[in-house]
Amino acid sequence: MSQRAARLQRARGALLGRLVGEALGATTQHLPPESLAALAGEGPLEMRGGGVHDVAPGQVTGEGELTLTLARELATEGSYERERVAVAYVRWGRSEPFDVPQPEGRAFPDFPETPSVAEGVAARADREARCAGALARVVPLAVWGWDLPPGELGERAAADARLSHPDPSCRHASVALCFALARAIERGGTPVELQRATLEFAREANLAASVQAALQAALGGAGARGAGASGG
User: Fold this and answer.
1) Which of 27, 61, 142, 186 has the fewest CB atoms lying closer than 10 Å?
2) What is the pLDDT of residue 229?
């Protein structure tokens, strides 16, 4: 397989994996742990549909729809323009989506009465929200910008996160994940190699301490699993 074909395959895997994962999660959203265990059984989850939103098998919810919104903008325009993307997000919010997470519902319900849609949206975003909505939609940015300098791509990831999740830990988590995805698309590699590279990037970029701690904890867990496997 050529290098270009391998990168394309990894990029497809990143985007499809993001959406497939959400479609699986849509069925189990808001369910207690014991119900999740009963659904899963001893094997992987199936595309059942249903759940609190009564989704069709394979259907995504609000964050998946925003992921696709960003993907369409990048594919159509070939660049990330925050103002244009903010307009697209508000159009999604005005389309009466069946699932609207709280931060996105606050940021994207309608067009703000400001000269800049992006700045108006960001100004009313929930500064206390520390959930994963912005993180969930970062995959298209990595697919589009995998060959950009990490700092430049990170600026775009942070700018996009700020539209709905301005808390520094949310913005920096998006930066870290975007770096990890872009590097995986570019080079492949093992999970541990990718985690080490992402932690090194987070330290060099002075990302939020909470993000660095989460990356360090993940790397420690991966290292322990790797040691157990090699020992036994």
Assistant:
1) 186
2) 38
DSSP the chain: --HHHHHHHHHHHHHHHHHHHHHHHHHHTT--HHHHHHHHTTS------BTTTTBPTT---HHHHHHHHHHHHHHHHSS--HHHHHHHHHHHHTT--S---HHHHHHSSS--SSS-HHHHHHHHS-TT--SSHHHHT-HHHHHHHTTS-HHHHHHHHHHHHHTT--SHHHHHHHHHHHHHHHHHHHH---HHHHHHHHHHHHHHTT--HHHHHHHHHHHHHHHHHHHHHHT-
pTM, rounded to two decimals: 0.90
CATH of the domain at 218: 1.10.4080.10
Has residue 50 been placed in a domain? no
In a domain, residue 106? The reply is yes
The whole-number pLDDT of residue 26 equals 86
Both tokens assigned to 165: 């999740």
Per-residue pLDDT tens over the stretch 196-218: 999 999 999 999 999 999 999 99
Domain count within the chain: 1
| Residue 30 counted as domain residue | no
25-44 pLDDT, tens digit each: 888 887 787 777 776 665 55
- Say if residue 232's pLDDT is above 60: no
Residues β-bridged to residue 55: 50
